[in-house]
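A student in our group prepared the protein record below, which I am reviewing. What it holds is a sequence and that sequence's fold in C-alpha cell form. My question to you is simply how this chain folds and whether the C-alpha cells agree. Do not assume that whoever made the record got everything right. I have pasted the whole thing underneath without changing anything:
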Amino acid sequence: MIPECRLMPDSNVSCSWANKTSKMKEYHDHEWGRPLHDEDQLVALFVFETFQAGLSWSIVLEKRDEIRKALYSFDLEKIISLSDNDVISILENPRIIRNIAKIKSAIQNARIIHSMHERGTTFSELVWSFKPKAHITPGSLHETPCETEESRKMSNHLRKLGFTFAGPVICYSFMQGAGIVNDHISGCPIGLEISGLYR
C-alpha cells in the first residue's frame, strides 16, 4: 500500500489513501505503521498482505474478518492440518477472497512458521531483523518506494525458507503495515505520533 499526502479540509496533513473509506481511515489511524511485535498479529498481517496481491487494500479490509474466520483465527496448528478438501470448502465461501493459490500459500507459510516455533525462533524476530538502520520519511507519493534493499533481503530470506507470495513488494508493504518502517507522509499527525514510538 503506497500512501499519498494532501491537505485535508480540517487543515491536517494526512495520508490521502486513508480517506477512501471509513475502514481505511480507521486502519490508518489505529493500525498502519504502528510497531507490531506480537507473533499472532504479525502472522495475520502477512497473510492479509499476501491476499492483497493484485488487489486493493480496501478489499482486504472488507473481507479480513471472514478470512480470519475461514483460517481459524490463524491458529497455526489448525491451518497446517487443512486438507485439500478443506481448501475446496474454504473456496466455496463467497465472503472471502477466493484464490486457491493464496489459500495454499497461507497454509505453506504457516507450516514454515510452525517449524520455526519448534526450533525456538519466531516470525517476529525474523522480520524485525530487516528493520533499516535509518529511514527517510517520505514527503510525497513519489518518494515512497515500492520495495527497498531491506525488503529484497527479507524476500530472499523468506523464499529460501520456502515462503510463497513473499516478493519484495509484498514484503515492503508488510514492513509498512507492521511499522518496521514508518511510511506515513511527512506531516501526517499519525506518523508524527508513531515516530515517537521509535525513540
Summary: The first helix runs from residue 22 to 30. Residues 37-183 form a domain with the Endonuclease III; domain 1 fold (CATH 1.10.340.30). The chain has ten helices and two strands. The chain has one domain: 37-183.
